[in-house]
Design a protein that fits this description.
The protein is of the alpha/beta class. It has one domain: CBS-domain (Roll). Helix content is 48%, strand content 21%. The chain is globular, with a radius of gyration of 19 Å. 21% of the residues are buried.
């Protein structure tokens, strides 16, 4: 059975919660990530996601340079152990209606699991199946032939 450690992304970007929302957006763009975990005194405070920036800065037409990251963060941060089974993580994410969880062991962050990580995991499972590959290619060829005729 797969665990959090097996599917997590090790790229976890953190910032102090006192930086501006504008700085969060710049760091997210620079690092090509969809969220930033906020800390204060090296303890996790919350998370700022693309959706937080959209709904709490862009839509209400606020100046991102005048807002602190902690004013727009989502808190508390949902976390799991690196040994948590993948199906439990998926259920937790569905129950809480969240798109990411932080993977932690002994209070230390190891990585993050996002919906994208689940898609990659599913693709790995499916691509290991020869029948799946054969069906995929057959469907691709059928679709191609349909569209060119």
């Amino acid at each position: 059975m797969s665990t959090a450690r097996d599917i997590m992304s090790k790229k976890l970007v953190t910032l102090d919660s006192t930086v501006s929302a504008a700085e969060v957006a710049k760091i997210m763009d620079k690092n090509n990530v969809s969220c930033i975990v906020l800390t204060k005194d090296e303890k996790y405070q919350g998370i700022v996601t693309e959706r937080d920036l959209l709904s709490k800065v862009i839509v209400p037409n606020k100046k991102s340079s005048e807002l602190l990251a902690r004013e727009i963060m989502t808190s508390p941060v949902t976390s799991v152990s690196s040994l948590t089974p993948v199906d439990e993580i998926a259920q937790k994410m569905l129950d809480k209606k969240i798109r990411r969880v932080i993977v932690m062991d002994d209070g230390h962050p190891l990585g993050i699991i996002t919906v994208t990580d689940f898609v990659k995991h599913l693709n790995t499972i499916l691509s290991d199946s020869e029948n799946y590959k054969a069906e995929l290619y057959q469907n691709l060829f059928e679709d191609y032939e349909h569209w060119i005729n």
